[in-house]
TrEMBL record, chain A:
Pfam families, sorted: Metallophos (PF00149)
Family matches, as NCBIfam families: P_estr_lig_assc (TIGR04123)
Listed GO MF terms: hydrolase activity
InterPro entries: Calcineurin-like_PHP (IPR004843), Metallo-depent_PP-like (IPR029052), PdeM-like (IPR026336), Pesterase_MJ0037-like (IPR024173)
Superkingdom classification of source: Bacteria
Every Calcineurin-like phosphoesterase domain range: 43-159
Protein known as: Calcineurin-like phosphoesterase domain-containing protein
Native source organism of the sequence: Roseibium marinum
Transmembrane parts of this sequence: none
Organism ancestry: Bacteria, Pseudomonadati, Pseudomonadota, Alphaproteobacteria, Hyphomicrobiales
TrEMBL record, chain B:
This protein's record includes keyword Calcium: no
Keyword Hydrolase among UniProt keywords: yes
Keywords carried by this UniProt record: ATP-binding, DNA damage, DNA repair, DNA-binding, Helicase, Hydrolase, Isomerase, Nucleotide-binding
MF terms (GO), sorted A to Z: ATP binding; ATP hydrolysis activity; DNA binding; helicase activity
InterPro entries: ATP-dep_Helicase (IPR052511), DEAD/DEAH_box_helicase_dom (IPR011545), DEXH_lig_assoc (IPR026362), Helicase_ATP-bd (IPR014001), Helicase_C-like (IPR001650), Lhr-like (IPR017170), Lhr-like_DEAD/DEAH_assoc (IPR013701), Lhr_WH_dom (IPR045628)
Family recorded in the similarity comment: Belongs to the Lhr helicase family. Lhr-Core subfamily.
NCBIfam families in the cross-refs: DEXH_lig_assoc
Protein known as: ATP-dependent Lhr-like helicase
Domain of life of the organism encoding this protein: Bacteria
Length: 245, 834
């Protein structure tokens, strides 16, 4: 059985989240890589990079055209489990600005079905700076609800007011743990308690190791935690225990 | 043919050198003149290379001088070798006869290093003889000018053919040959080869195959071997180790041998062994003999210096891996020392052939087994050598990823007719069993990715025209092809740069710009944490950091590296040697030749347990330190054992036997767990025959492969060769790490959505043949069916000691990744509670 279908099976059961406070709000980290905010009945998903394969195909690299399907199926499974009233797509939902235009009809229909009866917010990202075409939902550069702010790219400052309660994506965090001479690398959530970076949700999206310089602009050196995605659970580690690539 | 029929110029030249043409050289001229392709099998020192070129030189001499102002005749002879260094070396060697006979023959080389203006010129004004590599042939054939370039090609010489045909490069070359034969009807091929097990395979490789069952064969000229080599197994006073590959125990004996010979060549199987032996030798090198190190990871400049010093005769010994196995003449080596197990009889013969390039004198070699099992293997190899037995692998079935690459190349040259191309490809022995359906799938893959979901028509690389011919959609496709040509996909490498340690001032940034020491596999570095030490280039290094595509290291202040090795045993034990070792174990009469220590060990095994039978499988079970062990002895090589171990633990798990892990080496496999396996087997609750049932290669294998990192690495190679993902080129790495899509993710998506995709089939074929040794495992399971002997023991048996000692040294498998993560996480929890 593929990893994908086993995920689907799991999500039809009651979702289990790892609850943590961010800027005073209790949010749940889910092993699919989405964020669940129970008080607001809101589901947050980052960096889906839909139509990534076809974006490569345009340049002559004919990657399997199944990434959009795989990503949407996984999203459907998660939606089924949480039944959110509001969905926030945290940017880079499409791999390029024309991605939503290329979206094959069956997937467009699938996405529209998921949107039915829900508030849907597209936060713009560097890959998709424009509103998606022929799809419902409101497009914003960033949006705040209560103490949490949702934007694609984290503000590159540490400790300032605007970073308090920031929920973002963009970096595709991944972490590596070493044990018994073997190392395991997984996508992960990364947080210092005041802000949170979501892992990339897309089927063809890789990860950037949290030991990379890029993270030193948003977290104090090694003073943050990660939650590695596993099957049915998350594995928490402090950054000091992680190794680079 | 009689030497008298040679043109005068040649007769005089031979005479001036005090030589007479050898019989096989004349035979080759004879066969070629009658239009016959020919395989020449000859030992080193038989004048093989000259024999290969003589027919062409004779023909070119008859053709006479080119008239001034008239364009050249195109290439007359192609010489193809697996190593570009070899092509350059041969060009030098050809110079002498060509100049001395004053032949109007232009000889040039063309390799990846040839400057582009020269390559351009070669296409316009080709030399008579072009010395090159399989990749360059592929490149030339993708050129629209290829038809003109090769129209007058008469001969193709394939050097080191035995080495070429065992890899995907051999597949690429087979496809190239099929095309060359079509461009130049009447083309003759010459194969030059060391002794092999099945000469007919190579003979078939050289010629066009008919569309029938019958196999067409090239003519064969065989030069019988020179003097019988003088091989012995090191007889050390020291205690023979139970396990391990270090040969450290014998280092003083080895040093003694070096001292008493002029130049010794020390062959080891892995780079880590090379590093270790080199370091140990220098530790006791009281006389500071010039001893050097040579392996593929070292900086090229350093390797060239060692080679030059060797050729100049200023070295007493070189410790080398297979990087020195082949080809080039290293001067007067009078002793080959093979450290560790020989792994194959033919491999050993070829290595020993490196010593002494004169045919009539025996080469001298000493085998140094690293442990007790290796003594048996050395003994088997020695017997094989005395009988002249060979165990080179059988001919491959052509790989599909290579075919994909070739098809794109052909389309770059000219519009491609599918049916004609299919027939052309099937005329090569390597691809003759390719069915039309598979061919179509591969073509479809090249054109649009070959997905069942037909969404890429608009992005097609190849388009079928109204005339039914396939053309590339854009000139850019040809550019892309040229950047990706070739079948060697290097493991991603990082440069190793020496910097000042930051161990003292922890926060200080790592200094920049030290000396470059060489390259190392990315996956090895990934396993290291800053501060870990390892052996590289003969010194102990401390890993500091990764910066872009470089690994920063500093000199460590210790002699004992923490990470013992960066590569396991590289070659699997050949089936032939494995069978010999099994036969030897089963026959106490044959133990006479073994050292006392080994004989005692086997006697003890006979007393305490039983001996493995020749055609059966011995399974021992015993308790030890609150765990229960099962050890079996298939002797099928590490790869097959690893696969079997993975499958057995899966099956044991399902049967409720709670296995915890396993470890494998070339000879045996040990599985352990918490349940009493002896009881489970002897009570009949878990019949051994069921455990080793052949159907284990079905679903269990499939389930495991889904997650296997071996499979993902194989997929990556296939995807690069087939042109699905682009090769990483030097200088591109900086962005490459983030921009390229991970092939692991592509594999997951493809496997989930189109498990029958042609690239997954190619990956499976590769894995089954190479990495997982599934065919060999299948043969094993068939062989031992109904012949499994189980012995329940109160404690570990003598034969099981070596494999148990490897637990902790070798990676232990069978633990799910999540379990490891969980344990790591729990450890932290406990730490936090303290």
């Amino acid at each position: 059985m593929s990893a994908l279908t086993s995920h689907l099976r799991n999500y039809t059961a009651a979702p289990v989240c790892h609850d943590i406070p961010i800027n005073g709000q209790l949010v749940g980290l889910h092993d699919s890589g989405v964020l669940w905010w129970p008080d607001e009945n809101t589901l947050v998903v980052a960096d889906m990079h839909l139509e990534k394969a076809s974006s490569y195909a345009r340049r002559g690299v004919l990657l399997p055209p199944y990434d959009t399907g795989a990503t949407l199926e996984k999203l459907a499974g998660v939606m089924d489990a949480f039944d959110p009233a509001r969905v926030i797509c945290l940017g880079d939902s499409f791999h390029d600005a024309k991605g939503s235009d290329r979206l094959p009809a069956p997937y467009r229909a699938m996405l529209s079905t998921l949107q039915l009866g829900r508030e849907w917010i597209w936060v713009t990202g560097n890959h998709d700076p424009v509103a998606p075409v022929r799809l419902c939902g409101e497009t914003v550069d960033e949006v705040s609800f209560g103490p949490l702010t949702f934007r694609h790219e984290p503000v590159e400052k540490i400790g300032s007011q605007e970073t308090q309660g920031e929920i973002c994506g963009h970096l595709h965090p991944a972490a590596r743990v070493r044990r018994f001479g073997r190392s395991i690398r997984r996508s992960c959530f990364a947080t210092d308690g005041t802000r949170l970076v979501l892992p990339a949700f897309g089927a063809l999206t890789g990860g950037l190791n949290v030991t990379d310089e890029a993270y030193s602009m948003i977290f104090r050196r090694r003073q943050f935690s990660v939650f590695l995605l596993g099957n049915d659970r998350l594995f928490p580690f402090t950054a000091s225990r992680l190794v680079g690539d | 043919m009689d030497a008298a029929h040679l043109p005068d110029r040649f007769q005089n030249w031979f005479a001036s050198r005090g030589w007479t043409p050898r019989a096989h050289q004349l035979q080759l001229i004879d066969h070629l003149s009658q239009g016959h392709s020919t395989l020449l099998i000859a030992p080193t020192g038989a004048g093989k290379t000259l024999a290969g070129f003589l027919p062409s030189l004779v023909e070119l001499e008859k053709r006479g001088k080119r008239k001034p102002g008239v364009a050249g005749n195109g290439i007359h002879t192609l010489y193809i070798s697996p190593l570009k260094a070899l092509a350059v070396d041969i060009a030098r060697n050809l110079e002498a006869p060509v100049t001395e006979m004053d032949l109007a023959v232009k000889v040039e080389t063309r390799t990846g290093d040839t400057p582009s203006h020269k390559r351009q010129r070669q296409k316009l004004n080709p030399p008579d003889i072009l010395l090159t590599t399989p990749e360059q042939i592929a490149l030339l054939l993708s050129d629209p000018a290829s038809a003109r370039l090769f129209a007058s090609l008469r001969t193709v010489i394939l050097d080191e053919l035995h080495a070429l045909v065992t890899s995907k490069r051999g597949d690429l070359l087979a496809l190239g040959l099929a095309r060359l034969r079509r461009l130049a009807p009447g083309l003759r091929t010459i194969g030059l080869s060391a002794t092999v097990a099945e000469p007919d395979d190579l003979r078939a490789y050289l010629v066009d195959q008919p569309d029938t069952e019958a196999r067409a064969l090239a003519h064969l000229v065989q030069v019988s071997g020179g003097a019988q080599p003088d091989i012995s197994i090191l007889d050390s006073e020291e205690r023979l180790p139970w396990s391990g590959h270090s040969s450290r125990y014998a280092i003083r004996d080895i040093y003694g041998l070096i001292k008493t010979h002029n130049v010794s060549l020390l062959f080891v199987n892995t780079r880590s062994q090379a590093e270790m032996v080199f370091q140990e030798l220098w530790r006791i090198n009281d006389e500071t003999l010039p001893i050097a190190l040579h392996h593929g990871s070292l900086d090229v400049g350093q390797r060239r210096r060692v080679e030059a010093a060797m050729a100049a005769g200023s070295l007493r010994a070189v410790v080398a891996t297979s990087s020195l196995d082949m080809g080039i003449d290293w001067g007067d080596i009078d002793l080959v020392i093979n450290i560790g197990a020989p792994k194959g009889a033919s491999r050993l013969a070829q290595r020993i052939g490196r010593a002494n390039h004169r045919m009539d004198e025996p080469s001298r070699a000493v085998l140094v087994p690293a442990n007790r099992f290796e003594v048996l293997e050395c003994q088997a190899a020695l017997s094989a050598s005395r009988r002249g037995e060979q165990d080179t692998p059988p001919l491959r079935n052509g790989a599909l990823d290579v075919l994909a690459q070739h098809l794109l190349g052909l389309a770059c040259a000219n519009p491609l007719d599918a049916l004609a191309t299919y027939e052309e490809i099937r005329s090569s022995q390597t691809y003759r069993y390719l069915d039309w359906e598979t061919f179509e799938k591969v073509l479809d893959f090249v054109a649009t990715g070959g997905y069942a979901l037909k969404t890429y028509e608009q992005y097609a690389k190849l388009r079928k025209g109204k005339d039914g011919l396939w053309r590339i959609a854009h000139p850019k496709i040809a550019q892309q092809y040229r950047l990706n040509v070739g079948t060697i996909v290097e493991a991603p490498m990082l440069k190793v740069r020496l910097v000042k340690s930051k161990a003292d001032g922890r926060r200080a940034p790592v200094g920049r710009g030290g000396r470059m020491l060489g390259e190392i596999e990315e996956y090895f570095i990934e396993q290291l944490a800053p501060g870990d030490t390892f052996l590289f280039g003969g010194e102990v290094l401390r890993f500091e950091a990764i910066r872009e595509s470089e690994a920063y290291v500093s000199r460590a202040k210790t002699d004992n590296p923490m990470i013992p090795s960066y590569m396991g045993g590289k070659f699997p034990l050949s089936t032939y040697l494995a069978a010999s070792v099994r036969a030897m174990l089963a026959d106490p009469e044959s133990w006479k030749e073994l050292p006392d220590q080994v004989r005692d060990w086997l006697e003890m095994q006979r007393e305490k347990s039983v001996l493995p039978r020749k055609d059966g499988l011995l399974v021992e079970t015993f308790p030890r330190a609150e765990k229960h062990y099962m050890v079996c002895y298939p002797f099928e090589g590490r790869l097959a054992h690893q696969t079997l171990g993975m499958l057995l633990t899966k099956r044991l798990e399902r049967l409720g036997a709670q296995p915890m892990g396993f470890v494998a080496n070339d000879y045996a496999l040990a599985v352990w767990g918490l349940r009493d396996l002896s009881l489970l087997f002897s009570s009949g609750r878990l019949p051994l025959d069921d455990l080793f049932e052949q159907d284990i290669l079905g679903d269990d294998l499939d389930a495991w492969l889904a997650e296997s990192s071996l499979m993902k690495r194989t997929f990556r190679n296939c995807a690069v060769i087939a042109g699905l993902i682009e090769r990483r080129h030097p200088g591109q790495e900086k962005t490459g790490r983030q921009v390229t899509v991970s092939s692991d993710l592509i594999y997951d998506v493809l496997r989930a959505h189109e498990p029958d995709h042609i690239l997954l089939k190619a990956t499976w074929n590769d894995a089954a043949e190479g990495l997982l040794d599934i065919s060999r495992l299948g043969e094993l399971l068939a062989r031992i069916k109904g012949r499994i002997t189980h012995t329940g023991l109160p404690h570990v048996s003598p034969l099981a000691v070596p494999i148990l000692l490897e637990i902790g040294k070798e990676p232990v498998y069978g633990e799910a990744m999540d379990t490891i993560l969980e344990e790591a996480a729990q450890e932290l929890v406990l730490e936090a509670l303290e």
